[in-house]
Amino acid sequence: MTVALMIVGGCALVGRTAEPPAPRAGTARITGAPPASAPPSPAAVASIEPEHPGRTDVYAADRPGMLSPVVKGFRSLVYVPNSESGTVDVIDPETYRIVRHFTVGALPQHVVPSWDLKTLWVNNNRGNFLTPVDPRTGRPGRPVPVEDPYNLYFSPDGAYALVMAERNNQLDLRDPHSMKPLRSLPLPCRGVNHGDFTADGRVFLASCEFSGDLVVIDWRAPSVIRRIHLGHMSMPQDVKLSPDGTVFYVADMERHGVWLVDAATYGVKRFLPTGRGAHGLYVSRDSRRLYVSNRGEGSVSVVSFAKRKVVDVWRIPGGGSPDMGGVSADGTKLWLSGRYHGVVYVFDTRRGRLVRTIPVGAGPHGLCVYPQPGRYSLGHTGVFR
Q: Looking at the record, which segments are called Disordered (predicted)?
């Protein structure tokens, strides 16, 4: 596949050859200029610089047992937002039983840990509010009005909550505690929903599901640096940075695999087929593998970061719809919602097989396993550094 690089404000058009994607792949177009080189604030540097320069692993603080003192007294639970039911089911991961059930708002999409690890936020997309949950007790608090909260991230320095306003096609920057609006960034794409940050925390790469785009964002300005069009056949979903910080992996539900995007140049490197309906991306606790949930075929593809290829596939007997979720604190289980089957799937990551199917409400989506190791949360269902 030839990837064309088009820079707005300049005349250069550069072509380069990459490995071919799935059949009927389109041409990726990148527009914009490189990000500004202004340094982050001192608070940001303290939060995002690697502890061991030269040995980059952005997930080094996510190893088993590396729980923050903030969460060490929290009970281990799995929070499941049921989009069609407008409810949350809370599961004990030891017994696999639902221990709490409560109503939230219209179309809850994800359960998101706050940057300071002290609160879980249920994103009530159509209800236009966030429901705070106290992870010490697992009980919900008073709803906070927030328009169009499809998904929620936090800036690496903890200064902003980044609301992915999917239907409004914008990124809303809010106070991370009160959720009061601060600034909004209109986006040149439709259906913004998932993202991740570069290793230095300066840039946010977000996916736009309905227009087949990725947008590179300087969240401090805030401004759009570039727009990457993956083609009319694309429907990008979850985004995850490789442990060494060099590549973004982007799930594509219509191309049935993941794109590899250079984290320095934002050029599309190649496409890796995984399975039908590739959707969620989760990093193993040893930073060696990426788990890809293939919602359309009921499987999980295991990708080796070192080899950049699929090394195993875990299949759900009889099929299923594995969607969003997270890895257990000890790394031995992968929890995923069954979006179209009203269940939660639990996979044993050591044996590579499904070990439990748990009935929940209708339309389960972005479940959160909590607590997990890490110093702070960047959002979604649990992206920790």
A: 18-45
Q: How would you classify the pairing of strands 192-197 and 161-165?
A: unpaired
Rounded distance between C-alpha atoms, residue 87 and residue 321, angstroms: 19
- Which run of H or E residues covers position 355? strand 353-359
Domain that holds residue 73: 2-33+61-370
Beta strand pairing status for 29-32 and 2-6?
A: parallel
pTM: 0.88
Q: With contact defined as beta carbons under 8 Å apart, do 360 and 382 qualify?
A: no
Structure-token match 């009530």, residue found: 124
Torsion of CA 137, 142, 146, 147, to 10 degrees: 110
- What would the pLDDT profile of 278-307 be if each residue is shown by its tens digit? 999 999 999 999 999 999 999 999 999 999
Q: How far apart are CA 46 and CA 128, in angstroms?
A: 34
* Domains held by the chain: number: 1
Q: 281 near 238, Cβ under 8 Å? A: yes
CATH code (residue 65): 2.130.10.10
Helices (H), the chain: 42-48
Does a structural domain hold residue 44?
no
Whether the Cβ atoms of residue 4 and residue 29 lie closer than 8 Å to each other: yes
205 lies in some domain: yes
Looking at the domain assignment, is residue 377 inside a domain?
no
Per-residue model confidence (pLDDT) at position 232: 86
Q: Which two tokens stand for residue 103?
A: 């109503």
- Cβ atoms within 10 Å, residue 105: 19
Q: What is the DSSP string of 197-237?
A: E-TTSSEEEEEETTTTEEEEEETTTTEEEEEEE--TT--EE
Measured in residues, the chain has a length of 385
